[in-house]
Amino acid sequence: MGTQAEFDQMIKSGELIESRNEMTPDYLKELKHTLIVSGDTELISAPAYYLAAKRAPSINAFMTGIAIIQDELAHAHIAYHILEELGEDQEKLIFSRDPKSFRYPYAFDVPLDSWTELVVANGMYDQAGFCLLGDIHDKCSYGPWKRGLNKVMAEENFHLRNGRTWMKRISAAGGSAKDELQRAVDWMFPLSVEWFGLPDSMKMHSTQLEYRLKGLTNDQLRQWWLSTVVPYCEQIGIKVPAHKEVRDGKDVWELDYPFPCEFDAAEKRWDFKQPISWDDVLIRWRARGPRNAEMVAMFQEEFHRFRKTHHQNGS
Amino acid sequence: MTQRLWDALTEVQDPEMPVNLVDLGVIYGITEQNGVVDVELTFTAMGCPASEFILEDVRERLLRETGVNEVRVTVVWDPPWTVARMTEAGRDALESWGLAV
Known about the structure:
Number of strands of chain B: 3
Shape of chain A: globular
Helix content of chain B: 25-40%
Shape of chain B: globular
CATH class of chain A: Mainly Alpha
Radius of gyration of chain B: 13 Å
Number of domains of chain B: 1
Distance between the termini of chain B: 32 Å
Largest sheet of chain A: 2 strands, antiparallel
Structural class of chain B: alpha+beta
Helix content of chain A: 55-70%
Number of domains of chain A: 1
Strand order of the largest sheet of chain A: 1-2
Order of helices and strands of chain B: HHEEHEH
Radius of gyration of chain A: 20 Å
CATH architecture of chain A: Up-down Bundle
Largest sheet of chain B: 3 strands, mixed
Oligomer: heterodimer
CATH superfamily of chain A: Ferritin, core subunit, four-helix bundle
CATH topology of chain A: Ferritin
C-alpha cells in the first residue's frame, strides 16, 4: 500500500480497487459500512415481501413474488460474501446481530399487509434500490462489488416491472381496488422519498462520495427516483404529492408537503401539517419500526433452534 | 409476413435476462392467416416467474405489426426447452453478462 496521497489519486483517476491490501483503513471502514447497509436492505426485504406475497391473488403472482424474494436473498449474499472476504464473519452478521442494529431503510419496518402494498413496494422501494445500486454499479471504486452488481441490475428491473404492471392493472380496475392502491401510495411514497436520507444542504461532507463508493448525492438520487415514479403514477391515474418545475432549463421535482414531516407508523399515516426536524427522523429511524424484531426473528430464530437441536442429537 | 413477425419478436427481451425471446429459443412457431397470428412458445422452466410478462409482451409486440388483428399464444412443453435451443447470438449475450451456457 502506498501513501494516503497516492491512494486518493488512484481513486480520483477512476482506477478500481481490487483487494484489501490496496486499501487504506479508512476506505475499508467506509466500504464495509456501505456493504452492510446494502446487504441488510436486500436481506430484510425478503421477510418483508414474503409476509405480503403470501396474499398473492394467483399461483402465478405468488411465483413471481417468491422469485423476487429469491433474487433479493441472492443480492444480499453478494454484499455479505464480499464482507466476508474483507474479514467479517457472514454468519455473525446475519444471525447474531441485534435486530435494532441492522442497517436498512426504515420503510421496511412498516408492515406490507396486502398484495397491493407489495406491488407498490416493488414499484417504489425497488425503484429506490435500483437508483442506489445503479449508481454504485456505475461509479463504485471497488471492482468486485461493481462487477457483482451486473446481474443485480437486470433483476431489479424485473421487480420494477412486477410493481408497475400490477399498479397499472389495479388502477385500471377502479373502484375499491384503486382506492386501496391510492391509500398504499399515500403512505409509501413519502417513506421512499425519505429513503435517500438527509438533504445535501445538511450533509456537507460525504466520505462515500470522496471514496467513490457512490457517485450521486442524496438529493441527486432522490431527484432521479422522483423523475421515474411521479410521471408513472400520473400516467396510471394515481395521485402523488410532488410535481415538476423547470428551473434554468432543467427539470426539478418538488415535493408538495413539508419534508420531513410526522409519520404514524401504526396508522400508516403522514401528517403533512406537522413538519419535524431531521433529528426527529433520525430518532424514529434508530428506534426502528413495528416489524423490525419480527422480521429479523424470521431468519434468526430457526437458525439457532436448528443448531441447538442438531448439536444435542450429535452429542 | 411470418418473417416480419419473427423479426418483431427479436425485439422482445426476456424480463430476467438480457436476451431476446428468439435468440433464447423459446419461440417454436409462428403462423398467420387473415390477420390472426398463432404463436407456439415455451418457457425455460415450468415455474417460470416471468411467464405472464412474456405472454403480454409477445401479444403486445405482434399487435403493433400492420395487418395483425389478433394474437393467439399457445404454451407448449413438448419438446422441452434446453440450452441447445439458444442461438449463437443468444449464448454470446448471456456469456458477456456473466452466465455460461
